[in-house]
Amino acid sequence: MERIALHDRLAPAAEGADVVFEAAPEKLDLKRALFAELESIVSPQAILASNSSAIPSTEIGRHLTHRERVIGTHFWNPPHLVPLVEVIQTEWTSAATVAATMDLLRRAGKRPVHVRRDIPGFIGNRLQHALKREAIALLAAGVADADTIDTVVKTGFGARLAVLGPLEQSDLVGLDLTLDIQETLVPHLDRSPAVSEFLRQKVAEGKLGMKSGEGFRRWSPEEADAVRERLGEALVDLIRRG
């Protein structure tokens, strides 16, 4: 803890740093302004890494002079328990920047993966929000309630996701079976090009989830705390099992 220092200005926080991890709110203009200021503070060799969940670092660093040292490093919540970090290479990121970032994260005990194309949402959030889009569409259409949809995920295919990724599972059951299922299923999946109006309405009504007491379902403070505790315990157990 004695190595942690708090600052209310960027310059004293970043001066002399070899690597800077940015974790500002998901606003492109704000991140661009921070990176522009950082470029005037740190050395040309210092790595500038963004922890954006969806914004391409290519866009964040587009107007910088030394774009070759800009890289995406998407940590996953809670970051002290989830080992994965997506390391996203922009169209200008140098091989040396990628290698140094991957090495630093490995030495910090993380599990970095190299994302070779900088696209919105990278890998993890594209997969996660594809699932969320379909789940919200099922709820909005009245196919099932929120608890049932979550139960299907948690106790069905979700139970194996920590040990078997979707492409591994496809190879396991056979690509011929995967093709047959998709021939029937894919035409019926939600393909809306815009954010769900059902979701927009929830937010407009102030139904923001656990922090407001209601989202897709109602939550008491005790229920919300129990979910957070259950998540933490499950992640710790996963880490212990290796």
UniProtKB/TrEMBL annotation:
<dbReference type="Pfam" id="PF02737">
    <property type="entry name" value="3HCDH_N"/>
</dbReference>
<dbReference type="InterPro" id="IPR036291">
    <property type="entry name" value="NAD(P)-bd_dom_sf"/>
</dbReference>
<dbReference type="InterPro" id="IPR006176">
    <property type="entry name" value="3-OHacyl-CoA_DH_NAD-bd"/>
</dbReference>
<feature type="site" description="Important for catalytic activity">
    <location>
        <position position="74"/>
    </location>
</feature>
<dbReference type="InterPro" id="IPR006108">
    <property type="entry name" value="3HC_DH_C"/>
</dbReference>
<dbReference type="GO" id="GO:0008691">
    <property type="term" value="F:3-hydroxybutyryl-CoA dehydrogenase activity"/>
</dbReference>
<feature type="domain" description="3-hydroxyacyl-CoA dehydrogenase NAD binding">
    <location>
        <begin position="1"/>
        <end position="118"/>
    </location>
</feature>
<dbReference type="InterPro" id="IPR013328">
    <property type="entry name" value="6PGD_dom2"/>
</dbReference>
<keyword id="KW-0560">Oxidoreductase</keyword>
<dbReference type="GO" id="GO:0006635">
    <property type="term" value="P:fatty acid beta-oxidation"/>
</dbReference>
<dbReference type="Pfam" id="PF00725">
    <property type="entry name" value="3HCDH"/>
</dbReference>
<protein>
    <recommendedName>
        <fullName>3-hydroxybutyryl-CoA dehydrogenase</fullName>
    </recommendedName>
</protein>
<dbReference type="InterPro" id="IPR022694">
    <property type="entry name" value="3-OHacyl-CoA_DH"/>
</dbReference>
<feature type="domain" description="3-hydroxyacyl-CoA dehydrogenase C-terminal">
    <location>
        <begin position="121"/>
        <end position="219"/>
    </location>
</feature>
<dbReference type="InterPro" id="IPR008927">
    <property type="entry name" value="6-PGluconate_DH-like_C_sf"/>
</dbReference>
<dbReference type="GO" id="GO:0070403">
    <property type="term" value="F:NAD+ binding"/>
</dbReference>
